[in-house]
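Page 42, continued from yesterday. The earlier attempt failed because a stray header line got pasted into the input along with the sequence. Redoing it now with the clean sequence only.
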Amino acid sequence: MTKEVVHLDFTMKTFDTSKMDMWSEEQWKEWRGDSEEDIGIKILLMNDHTLYLKIMEIYYDEATGDMFFGFDAQNKLDRAIHIQFGSWKIDESTNDLSHIKPQHLEKHSVVRGFQRFVKRTYLESWDSITIEINILDAETNENIRELEFQINKRLIQVF
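This time it went through. C-alpha cells are written below.
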C-alpha cells in the first residue's frame, strides 16, 4: 500500500506591535479582529469520498506540558473504521502515538470531535507538523489507507 502524502500550508497573520502607537484606526480594527472572524486554528486535512478530517484547534496546557489537537472526523464508507495515529513530528521533536487506542467511527458516521495530545515544551514557535495516520477496517484491523499530513506554517506580516 502506498502512503498518501498531503502537503498543507497554514498561513497566520503577524503584526509589528513595536509600532502600535502609530497605528491607524483601521490597523487597530484589523489587529483586534471581529468575533465572527475569529476562527482560531482550523486546518482541513482531508475531505474526499471516504473521509472528512479537520484540525479544529491546537492549544498548549502549561500545567501538563501537553500540546492538544482537536479533530473533527467523519467516516463516509459503508464499514466502520479506526483512525490509528502513528508518528507525529513537530519541528524536530517526534512522538509515537501508535500505542494509543484508535478512534472508532461507525459506517456513514456523523461528524465527531475527538482529541489527541503530545508532550511539548512550548507551543509558540512550531513551524512544521507531520502527522501519520492509518485508516483501519474496524472488524479485521486491515489497513485500508495510509496517510501523512505535512503542515507548514507561513507567517505573513500585515503591518
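Notes: The helical segments are 25-32.
Reminder to self: strip header lines before submitting.
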